[in-house]
Amino acid sequence: MEHAIKPEKDVMTPNECRLVRQTFPLLQEYSVSLALLFYGRLFELDPGARKLFHNDLALQSKKLLDMLASVVESLDNFESVVPRLSELGRKHAGFGVRPEQYDTLSTALLWTFAHALGLDFDNATRDAWRHALEAISRAMKAAAEDPQ
């Protein structure tokens, strides 16, 4: 059976893809409060990250959700979204985003998803989203390290 996202150490299973697809529409329903929770948590974990955001956070939130939607739509063919993630990785490097900040962002997103989804964010769903976010981070960091 062919798998979706192929991270370095593990593979996102069909069940993990299903869990991500199943929960993403629920997250989209809470987009405004989700953004407030996420950015609040991100800046709590990394106060220095605030200076990286020059745009309106509402606009940034829309961009984040749009990017996540693209990834969710591409779970079975992750390579199709890698060029967009690579471009974002290069842009973020230009803004001063450090590689370790991707981990902080993922931590803040998982915390936010847990609060937004409540009981729907069980361990299997958390792991599925963690695998997806790891794949996103790897693609963006690889492009940032090799900005060609």
Helix and strand layout, with pairings?
Elements: H1 14-29, H2 31-45, H3 57-73, H4 82-95, H5 100-117, H6 123-145
Describe the 3D structure:
70% of the residues lie in helices and 0% in strands. With 148 residues, it is mostly helical. It has one domain (17-145): Orthogonal Bundle (Globin-like).
Compute the number of strand runs. Answer: 0
Name of the CATH class: Mainly Alpha
Basic shape: globular
Low-confidence stretches: 1-10
CATH homologous superfamily grouping = Globins
Number of helices: 6
| pLDDT averaged residue by residue | 87
Strand residues, percent: under 5%
In sequence order, what are the helices and strands, one letter per element?
HHHHHH
Number of domains as seen in the coordinates = 1
Please supply descriptive tags for the structure shown above.
mainly alpha; Globin-like; 70% helix; disordered N terminus
Summarize the structure.
The chain is an all-alpha fold. It contains 6 helices and no strands.
